[in-house]
Amino acid sequence: PRIGVVVVAAGSGTRLAAGAPKAFVGIDGSSILHHALAGVFAAPPAQVVIVAPEGREGDALSEALATAGDRRDLVSVVVGGETRQASVAAGLDALWADVEIVLVHDAARALTPPEVFERVIAAIHAGAAGAIPVLPVIDTIKRVVADEIVAVVDRAELAAAQTPQGFRRHVLDEAYASARAEFTDDAALVAEAGHAVAAVPGNPLAFKITTAADLDRARHLLAAPAP
Ligand code: C5P
């Protein structure tokens, strides 16, 4: 079955405060978007739709064409929306008719290794309607209201969600068509629509670059690659 990857890169980067939309902020000599796309193009072949901030479509396309190698014909760029969910919806609208499996990936998870894509795709091939990479939660988590701890939360039941998140195309399309609220990831939307979503092992390198400290971490990782 044909695969499509929607790379959402339309965020403003307010929390990063680096003076440019986040996807265009440099890590080393190259941008967050470049590194994210290098991972996407090293994963199994797929249509790649990049969702860019308004006015930066041309920059996103140049970045993609420079990174795509022999996959240039698979690339397109659309403009994103006010929220991540609106940006994903714009990307879904640009998928080819024959795409049957969709992966939605945060450009901000710039160092995600191709093996994470492979695990998510394998879970869908094995029959899951949806599959997402997760990591165990390291911190002890509290439910807090105002300044009071109100509940014990069992850490063993929790996991941190990463991307790429993969779904059968019709499942994701229908979940977006019926969505009545804003969610922070696609798995939540699909679960709300009544579908089971499988968990596969994530990778610490798939962390989301959100703050200046995250950007520093990415810089260090690229400067001193693992042996
Ligand atoms: O804001 P957050 O960190 O959840 O963003 C995750 C991803 O969604 C980022 O890659 C960001 O570029 C993208 N995004 C988007 N459109 C928005 C907001 C976020 O494409 N309006």
Plain-language structure description:
Keywords: Isoprene biosynthesis, Lyase, Metal-binding, Multifunctional enzyme, Nucleotidyltransferase, Transferase. Its cofactor is a divalent metal cation. It comes from Microbacterium yannicii. This protein has 227 residues and is an alpha/beta fold. It has one domain (2-223): Spore Coat Polysaccharide Biosynthesis Protein SpsA, Chain A. Helix content is 32%, strand content 23%. It is built from 7 helices and 10 strands. Strands 1, 2, 3, 4, 5, 8, 9 and 10 form an 8-stranded mixed beta sheet that branches. It has a two-stranded antiparallel sheet with strand order 6-7. Strand 2, helix 2 (57-67) and strand 3 form a beta-alpha-beta unit. The chain is globular and about 50 Å long. The relative contact order is 0.18. The mean pLDDT is 96. The structure holds cytidine-5'-monophosphate. The site of cytidine-5'-monophosphate has 19 residues, from helix 3.
Summarize the structure.
32% of the residues lie in helices and 23% in strands. The protein is of the alpha/beta class and 227 residues long.
- Helix amount: 25-40%
Large-scale geometry: globular
CATH topology: Spore Coat Polysaccharide Biosynthesis Protein SpsA, Chain A
Number of strands: 10
Q: How many helices does DSSP assign?
A: 7
The secondary structure category is: alpha/beta
Q: Could you say which small molecules are bound to this protein?
A: cytidine-5'-monophosphate
**Element-by-element helix/strand order:** EHEHEHEHEEEEEHHEH
What's the name of the CATH homologous superfamily?
Answer: Spore Coat Polysaccharide Biosynthesis Protein SpsA, Chain A
**What multimeric state do the chains show?**
single chain
Strand content: 15-25%
Organism: Microbacterium yannicii
Keywords: Isoprene biosynthesis, Lyase, Metal-binding, Multifunctional enzyme, Nucleotidyltransferase, Transferase
Cofactor: a divalent metal cation
Site (Positions MEP for the nucleophilic attack): 155, 208
